[in-house]
Amino acid sequence: MQTINAVVGASCERYGVRPALRHKENGIWRETTYGELGRLSDRFAAGLLREGFRPGDHAALLGPSSPLWVAAYLGILKMGGVVVPIDKELKEAELRHILRDSNARVVLSEGQWLELAREMAADLPDLMLAAPLSGTIAGEADAAPPILVAAPPRTADDTALILYTSGTGGRPKGAMLSHANVVSNIRAAVAHLDLDDSISTLSFLPINHVYEQVCGVLLPLSLGGVVTFCESIKKLGENLAEVNPSFLTGVPAVYRMILDRIMKKVHKEPIGRMLFSFPPTRPLVQRKIRRAFGAKTIFVSGGAALDPAVAQGLISLGLTIYQGYGITETSPIISAETHGARRLGSVGRPLPGVEVRIDNPNDEGVGEIVVRGDNVMQGYYRNPQATTAVLRDGWYRTGDLGKLDDDGFLTIYGRVKNLIVTPNGKNVYPEEVENELLKSPFIAEVMVYGHRTGSMEEEVHAMIYPDQEALDDYAGRQSGGPTLSNGELEALLKREVQTACRTLADYKRVRRFTIRGEEFPKTSTRKIKRYEVEATISAL
User: Fold this and answer.
1) Which of 13, 107, 178, 435 could form a disulfide with 130 if both were Cys (CB 3.0 to 4.6 A apart)?
2) 20 to each of 3, 63, 138, 199, how far by Cα in Å?
């Protein structure tokens, strides 16, 4: 098993003048070849060595996706260091916690993030350097290649990354992933999805997250493919049409947004609505949609459960979408659908070399998903108690509820800690109820939770953040006024909740709901930080 930098380094040597990375600058797509990427990462390694960085030291990366970010990442690994990728959207207190907890010796960053890191330096005794990604460390990209002092060789079992979990359930913990963890997952994914050097991706998720880092960037670079960095989430549709990638990783919230935008556009135009409504003419609309959103693109959803209705909606438009399942601690992929092995609502079969077991299944076969394989993390950095709680005899306890069918397909039901148990002993999975509620055009975000009544019995409650644009359109059509009154809003949402719950068993139906005036706090992959919301509910 090789190291991450050795795998990508082999591509840099083999593919030389082939484009590795693309980004837009002043309206023009700029390319970084494999040869340039190799030389630039060498310069980062040499710059770190010059500044006193040593093998085994930890270096934080803080900033937006860019070719420099990738080159710095590889340079840190070449120097024998451990990369600590950090979410650029973190608040100061969270950033300070990670920099201190990770023992970062160096922070490579840009702009406002670099200034913030420098302000914190006085309170971080381990930090010896906070430097810009461009200039100070790497020097000029076209300068003569540096001569590197040979560093003690790093093995595949050495720690490569410390990735801080997104924190949906509390303070982030640093998952330690070895080179072997990541490389084994890349190789298993390549085999599982039958990928080759023709792969091209459009990277738009936060690059600090393991899902995008491994699947969207390292995997294609290991094959000699092309990674194009999206300009922004707002320009995703435009960039998709420009780049036409063969492979795109996204999260359910993005795919729901894509489907909603497409369907709004189809129904807004009378001709398009008519053509789409009749099966004989529907392919005309589908061809137009494929041209706009990637005629050859395979969309892969991960990071959270994808509503089967959203998947079916995209498939009905002629798009190809697979659902996968993975988490930070498993480097990240555990299972995924693939060509010829798809089952709506499932997350496909486990990857080669990844074992999945359902622990303590109930009468329906649903229990906690536990995983074993070369992709399972080494543990949580400086947190043996948290490590012991989830790693036992090589098996990682995911905290997710799932079921394996007779054909080996895995279906996710939700988080163990989110499970609602009704007074009659029935299990309610909040994610299932949330998916039904989100089908309403008037509900932008929702969180379903168990609320204990005076008798300590749990009822299904919901907190709803309405879609203001849809509400304004509705108000204009109904009364001609700009907005709905509080009473009208509550009555409308009550009807929507009741309609959505008709498809659910009686014990799963929402008994009460509250209206939220602002978006829910979310992680970098758009998952609601339930622990933050639940803390406010408890205080009510």
Assistant:
1) 107
2) 19, 20, 19, 11
